[in-house]
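Risk register update: the risk of archive-format incompatibility is retired. Evidence:
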Amino acid sequence: MTYKDFGLVNTRAMFADAIKRGYAVPAFNFYNMETLQAICRATTDTHSPVILAVSESAMKYMTPDMLMGMIRGMGFTPGNVALHLDHGGSFEACEKAIKMGFSSVMIDGSKLPLDENIALARRVAEYAHQFDVTVEAELGTLSGIEDENTFSDVSHYTNPADVVRFVRESGIDSLAIAIGTSHGAYKRKNDNEELRFDILAEIARELPEFPLVLHGASSIPQHLVKTINELGGALKDARGIPADQLRRAVSMNICKINVDSDSRLAFTAALRKSFADNPENFDPRKYLTAARENITENCIAEIRDIMNSENKAM
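Archived output:
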């Protein structure tokens, strides 16, 4: 099976259009039926393109057959939806995803020395391009924890002096960069921290018109954090990347923004509220419907307020 059999597309045309028209394609992570349905409902209602992102741990949780069964069941019309392996940790992980029907893969060799990172990315790109699958790689390291396969205790900003060589020698289609974002719900120590727009500007000058990606860029909506904490949660000092900074990044060649933690917060806030408001309920369909609706609302808000991708579907 190829991704075209599932009504999917790769990211090449998406990113070219995003750069041309000044928006970012949202890359929303999902891990079950409800999160997939919520994302698709939000992007359908806003007429936005979307990248459905799946980490290796999420794939393990759903199982490959169930994952692709859900993708087939969505009945996508070709043109607006890509299925992307997020933070693939090896060539074999990317190869497996491509054979399953993914239209885009990320090979994450960001913790490797530069030459090894280039070599690994080139190997994946050479294989993926045989199947018209697009490839993302990462230069620089983000701190924080997203899941068992996406974590780092340290961060290293992307060196603009390395980006041209990395892209040219690896043959990748998009580049994830590190300019101060991080994984998880604790992205900033205080409200005064700002992304390194000076680094982004220099990278954009070195790679004009080349698709740049921000990982760890969830905004961590404070109303969701508040709901969780008021109903028994413990997310003290959780902070995200402010919407105005993300919008500024989009204006500087960032054409894909990854969002995972925000959806987790929306899901969790809805569950806690449903349990608090309806303690007698034990029907999962009711509280999972609330969670699905909360994610949909949050995705719509981010499409409109951050990505600027509303009505950009091709």
